[in-house]
Specification:
The chain has 2 helices and 22 strands. The chain has 2 domains: about 220 residues, Jelly Rolls, CATH 2.60.120.200; about 80 residues, Sandwich (Immunoglobulin-like). It has about 300 residues and is mostly beta strands. Helix content is about 5%, strand content about 50%. It is globular, with a radius of gyration of 20 Å. The longest helix has 15 residues. The two termini are about 20 Å apart. Strand 18 and strand 19 form a beta hairpin.
Length: about 300
């Protein structure tokens, strides 16, 4: 079941990339490809560890036995800053990163933090770590409901959540093209405040690396279908706001559960608007809704249902 959830999320992302070519490089499972992970040992009290999780919520890896955890056994301490870096070399694609040849990364995570006091932040470097910039400089993230650009906080510890980081302008992520570089770096940094919470922190596994080469960028970004939900998470009903490409006024809206089962479907008969969706009869969990035109998925997004 866990494997299906992440696989499904990656399928939806690949559907969105109908104007791009993409490929797979490696998956860091923390049993292999550890040469692509660097824990920042310059931080005196760095608590990131690669090993077998042995906590209440963090009780096993996604792909056993190992994951990377803010301490495999103990709660995180106060006033802590701990980082690790994911190395994304471009030589396996035969090109430098840059322009429309860009990396993508996905991973699964659990987190258990003191909301707004403690957080996890991801930043990007394209100059070998000399400078670090927010992810939304060149991309957007899709994933857990508590992600704001490149930061996570709060608790999502009972089930694994898949997160995808996209850098391709053709996905509507950014008007800024990715800089030319041999290697891109992603830094995952955990911050804790001055209040001792005895919470478990952040756990990450199965970091999947790949490449994306976009086509038709200008046409796609100016004329892309869009869909979003509010409130999200939702308990009873949510409003799905949509925008179809210019000249389109008919589409099919579908809602799937985390393992790809179709839960609800509906028709859209206008170029833009809002569709009310009742979710009171759905179990708690993660759902994906798609917007299809002529049988082709043009946009997708995630909805969390919590009663």
């Amino acid at each position: 079941m866990k494997k299906q959830i992440l696989f499904l999320s990656l399928i939806f992302i690949s559907i969105i990339n109908s104007y791009s070519q993409w490929g797979y490089l490696d998956t860091i499972t923390f049993e292999k490809h550890l040469e692509l992970i660097k824990i920042d040992t310059s931080q005196k009290n760095n608590i990131w560890q690669i090993g077998r999780p042995q906590k209440t919520y963090f009780d096993s890896a996604y792909s056993k036995p190992y994951a990377i955890v803010t301490d495999t056994v103990n709660p995180y301490p106060i006033n802590n800053i701990s980082s690790f870096i994911v190395i994304m070399p471009s030589n396996k694609t035969g090109y430098k990163w840059g322009g429309c040849n860009v990396p993508y990364i996905s991973f699964v995570e659990k987190y258990n933090m003191d909301t707004l006091q403690d957080s996890g932040v991801i930043t990007l470097s394209v100059d070998n770590g000399k400078t670090w910039v927010p992810l939304n400089t060149y991309c957007k993230t899709t994933g857990s409901g508590n992600w704001y650009g490149s930061m996570t906080t709060g608790t999502y510890a009972k089930v694994w959540e898949g997160v995808m980081i996209q850098f391709t302008p053709s996905n509507g992520c950014s008007v800024n093209y990715f800089p030319v570089c041999d290697t891109a770096l992603l830094k995952f940094t955990f911050y804790s405040g001055s209040t001792l919470s005895n919470k478990e922190g952040w756990m990450i596994d199965d970091i999947r690396l790949g490449w994306d080469f976009c086509e038709g960028v200008q046409e796609y970004t100016k004329n892309a279908a869009q869909i979003s939900a509010y409130p999200n998470p939702s308990s009873n009903s949510t409003s799905l706001s949509y925008q179809l490409p210019q000249g389109q006024s008919r589409a099919v809206l579908k809602l799937y559960n985390a393992v790809g089962e179709l839960m609800k479907t509906g028709l859209i008969n206008s170029n833009a608007g809002t569709a009310e969706q009742d979710v009171s009869d759905l179990p708690n969990g993660i759902y994906y809704y798609t917007l299809s035109i002529g049988g082709v998925v043009e946009a997708t997004n995630k909805l969390v249902v919590i009663h």
